[in-house]
Design a protein that fits this description.
Elements: H1 2-19, H2 23-26, E1 35-43, H3 46-59, E2 63-68, E3 96-99, H4 101-119, E4 124-128, H5 135-145, E5 152-154, H6 164-171, E6 176-178, H7 185-193, E7 199-200, H8 209-222, E8 226-227, H9 237-249, E9 256-257, H10 263-268, E10 274-276, E11 279-281, H11 294-297, E12 309-312, E13 317-318
Helix pairs in contact: 1-8, 3-4, 4-5, 5-6, 7-8
The protein binds magnesium ion.
Magnesium ion binds near residues 130, 154 and 155.
Length: about 325
Amino acid sequence: MSAIAAVDTALWDLKAKAAGMPLYQLLGGACRTGVRVYGHANGQTVEETIAEARRYREMGYTAIRLQSGVPGLASTYGVSRDKMFYEPADGALPSENVWSTPKYLASAPNLFAAARAALGWDVDLLHDTHHRLTPIEAARLGKDLEPYRLFWLEDTVAADNPASFRLIRQHTTTPLAVGEVFNSIWDCKQLIEEQLIDYIRSTVVHAGGISHLRRIATLADLYNVKTGCHGATDLSPVCMAAALHFNLSIPNFGLQEYMRHTAETDAVFPHSYTFDAGFLHPGNEPGLGVDIDETLAARYPYQRAYLPVNRLEDGTMANW
Ligand SMILES: [Mg+2]
């Protein structure tokens, strides 16, 4: 589906260029003036994470994902040394993380209690558990986080079994998001039709391109599910631009993830999209509004990098 997505996205780019209009106009026009995005604040401690969140607010963000180190664990998902350009694929061979669900479940609510006390209520907060919980653990976390009114709780459980979301849904009013690894409308059909989630996180690049993602969004709209496209740094500026034109043109847009690319990456992909006061706009150049400087790209040869592997404290291999 990623191969299909590449061809599909290129064809939409070409057609919009031939039509002499930005892609969102070809898709039906703008449903809103901009695309609201969220950034990632993370730190080893609660205090460090809140200080990062303040930095994002100063940059203009109105929605922020918070991830903090877990006391008693040396490292965890979503917490990195490089704050602004987080890339979890960190080595030529996989590094090893140690995970403890009990330690995590004991600490996560403290992060959000402290965050609300420090940041107030005039900011949307999000959190990602990276598919590490069982349904009953996810249900408990959702309940524990209810007082802090999260915008969404993401990837609570592995979504291979959509029915497991029924149990989470029965227990908590915390909004649920999932789908960044989904490849087609069939991966999310049951979750959407049974209204087991609030945000579908499928992306242009993983789910067959703009054409297929529009089908997912149309299905989701029938059931009050909004979009929340994945936007990690390994998704290029081409993917980001495609997401922005898509987001601007659909009625049930929710929120867009925006992890910034480095200056080197931005230079390889000159683009017309811009950030202002918590919103991205794709700009008004014909097509996607992104180019690829192939000469500059040739200066950056492929480097092998792996995501970490995860073990429980007793050495058991676990889902990272
Ligand atoms: Mg996620």
